[in-house]
Specification:
mainly alpha
Length: 89
Amino acid sequence: MSIIITLIVGGLVGYIAARLLGRREGVLGSVLIGIVGSFIGSFISTLFSGSDQAYLDFSWVGIFWSLIGALVLVGIMNAMSHPSPRHHV
């Protein structure tokens, strides 16, 4: 049952992050963004607090760090998919 909850929460976190940064992803894309974002959020939370507060922790703090990680991931995806304009001199 916990894997189903993980997929649902991952999908919601991925969906929210994608929508906040202007992307439209499908269900599978949202779940993947949420799950990978959770790992990124885990790493970021360890850098800031010295402890892992996102990975395998079903709490508001864990969801917060997962969302932060998903936002970082979507930001990277946006940067890679939108080429920067060239400046002509």
